[in-house]
Amino acid sequence: MTVLAPTPTAPGDARPRRWGRRRVVGVAVLVTALVIVAVLSVTFGARDVAPADIWAGLGGSTDTASAAAVGKRVPRTILAMLVGAALAVAGAVLQGATRNPLADPQILGINGGASLAIVTGIAFFGLSTASAYIWVGLLGAGAAAVLVYAIGSLGRGGPTPLRLALAGAVTAVAFSSLVSAILLPRINVMNVFRFWQIGGVGGATPETILQVLPFLLVGFVVCFASASALNTLALGDELAAGLGARVRTARLLSSAGAVILCGAATAVAGPIGFIGLVVPHMIRLVVGVDHRWLLPVSALGGAVLLTLADVLGRIVARPEEIEVGIITALIGAPFFIALVRRQKMRAL
């Protein structure tokens, strides 16, 4: 009987184990960070809250001002986590679907489409409820995505990553101009819209969360179910098709999930930028490019970052607040520039 000697372990064989350890450690760190920022979000604001008041407020007590503050901050914290997770997952999906590292709901004009639809509804149809914002925002985001894809598909070569990015940038500028054209002659609409346009979660209520939650859940399910297809798309359209993947169907379905998340998140919190751009790149450094890990861990990272940004906005200018959309821009822009310069990311 011939006994085969074991094959020596190649240096590259340790890579899966190394990624496995990094993923476990990364998820543990993010879960811990999420718990910490949740506690900070409930504790700090225009009025700091003592631990006893936190427990009283969580129990439904409104006997003290601090306990009442907790009752308002808990929905705000939950909404910040949901919106941050939605935007981060949407950004990761769009980057994978378009194979463009600069893809983002804001850059591709999806947030702009939701904004234009909502301001049109406020100005001409008297929209004023969260549920109406959500439905109109979804329609606007979907229409913007279709328009950007159609423009990026013109000419020979089809919708390349560069064409989609350019089409999205041009469309976003056009939407912003149309929003300004609608608002300028309507001061009453501008007063309603300007706080929403900055982006924030300060108006969160349990009713708002319950209204937007079904849409977010549908978006998350569609995006997570597209993880394997996005891994195949990363190989290139020709190779993916050769492996039996339905490239166009996979791209459309995954993008539809991202559009649902963007539209719903934008409707309840305004057009918050940079979460969908920065977080996926941060998470790739921890879990790699496998979308089966990237998408759920990006959800954790987005929830942590947006909640932390909301806490900072309440602390730095007390007793006033800085809206979370401003904080994410201040944090995200320089961080993303440094990340791109360090990693030299040109394609996915």
From TrEMBL:
The chain crosses the membrane at residues 24-46, 78-95, 107-125, 132-152, 164-184, 215-236, 256-281, 293-316, 322-340. Coiled coil: none annotated. The keyword Lipoprotein does not apply. InterPro entries: ABC_BtuC-like (IPR037294), ABC_transptr_permease_BtuC (IPR000522). Its main location: membrane. It holds the Pfam family FecCD. It is found in: Cell membrane. Keywords: Cell membrane, Membrane, Transmembrane, Transmembrane helix, Transport. It is a multi-pass membrane protein. The keyword Disulfide bond does not apply. Belongs to the binding-protein-dependent transport system permease family. FecCD subfamily. PANTHER family: FE(3+) DICITRATE TRANSPORT SYSTEM PERMEASE PROTEIN FECC-RELATED, FERRIC ENTEROBACTIN TRANSPORT SYSTEM PERMEASE PROTEIN. This is Iron ABC transporter permease.
